[in-house]
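If it is no trouble, can you show me the amino acids of a protein and the tokens describing how it folds?
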Amino acid sequence: MATLKEIAAKAGVHLTTVSGILNQSQSNSRSSDATRKKVLRIAQNLGYVRNQLASRLRSQRTHTVCLIAGDIRNPFFASLATAIEEELEASGYQLLILCRGLGEGRSNAELIRAVFEQPVDGFIVWSESAGKTVLQLPENFPKPIVTIGAPVAGFSGVKLDIGRGLKMAVDYLVGKGHRHLAYYAPEEARLKGLPQPRPQLFDKIVTKAGLPRPQLIFYPGKDWDVAAASNYASQVQVNPKVTALVGFNDVSILGWHQAARVPSVETVSFDGTDWLRLSGAAVPHVHIPARKLAHAAVATMLAHLEKSGTTKIKSPVVLSEFTPN
């Protein structure tokens, strides 16, 4: 196996330059881009294999970031996790995922404490379901935490304005002449959400638009369970005045459509994941750009790690997008 000394001789650079390039992420390397590419190419040609364990012991870094999000069976969180993993890999990091669905009954703060002794450098947390529990952590928590979603006081994060997305859905339906609206969501949506649960936020947006109070319909089931959404939709009594309905997410709307409730009301979905596209349902939807969220969250985390601190960093904003059909 090639050594750093052999690579340095072949590249015509100092040994410390080779070490800096091969043992640090691209964002940390102080060498020019041309030198970095040259060293990496020679290392690959010579069959160099980096000793990850030794590198981690030297740097006291694991180059691992933990994601705490919603249940991975929810297609949105699957998309978000994939995008974050790809962003981290591009910078020499790997991803550890804590699935909320497997940890039901435990708060996110408890989950973070559970992995405190585990080899991770920081945490990325979906704040809509986790923000309130993140606040339970001690002020001197030594590892950086980056939130995604609504801002959480005291933490760096990527802001996603859920309210803006809901308002776009309402404005779209009002523009098509609808006045009596409904909202379809899993029962658990009543409680989780920052700055407030989505159903309450939807109610507020609708009434502020001068419309009658919307009908809030909750089905017993999780936010990933299409069958639960479909079963309840087939039997629920909808206010006869309702002409349009907004779903909590793509799963809610796909369940509604499977129950053959399509002709009764016009629907708008939320999230805009591949699930919706692959289903073939031509449904207007609010698109939550998972890849943009991932890029911003990872960039914020890397900024923390490069500074070796937990001081709050200014939060970037990612906007929802509306796609009519």
Q: What stands out?
A: The CA atoms of residues 3 and 48 lie 7 Å apart. The first strand starts at residue 64 and ends at 68. The chain is about 40% helix and 15% strand.
